[in-house]
Design brief:
The protein has helices at about 20-40, 45-55, 60-75; strands spanning about 5, 20, 80, 90. About 45% of the residues lie in helices and about 10% in strands.
Length: about 100
């Protein structure tokens, strides 16, 4: 049986992102959202936290998949970069949930 894939999006118009395993996408997405639920990390902090959570159980490059999924979540307006330097990442508030 063929592995299910997802075509990820890119936040910059005109750029395309990667077609990756849906299973790997889901694991990375869930962990990024968990990290951002309680913090607003810089890019480096986000990737380091993601790596430390998944390095022993994830098959593949955690940071490569992390970057691909992070860009997809930005394009889908689920997370955003702050406008101040250094840039930090945060969840986008939706309706009454915040």
């Amino acid at each position: 049986m063929k592995e299910e894939k997802i075509q990820t999006l890119h936040p910059q118009p005109g750029k395309t992102n990667k077609n990756i395993s849906l299973g790997k996408y889901t694991v990375i997405k869930e962990n990024i959202l968990l990290i951002l639920k309680d913090s607003e990390p810089t890019h480096t902090e986000l990737m380091e936290n993601l790596y430390s959570r998944l390095k022993d159980t994830f098959e593949g490059g955690v940071q490569w998949y992390g970057e691909t999924v992070k860009l997809d979540l930005e394009a889908r307006k689920m997370i955003e970069r702050t406008k101040i330097k250094p840039e930090k990442y945060k969840l986008i508030a939706t309706g009454a949930s915040r």
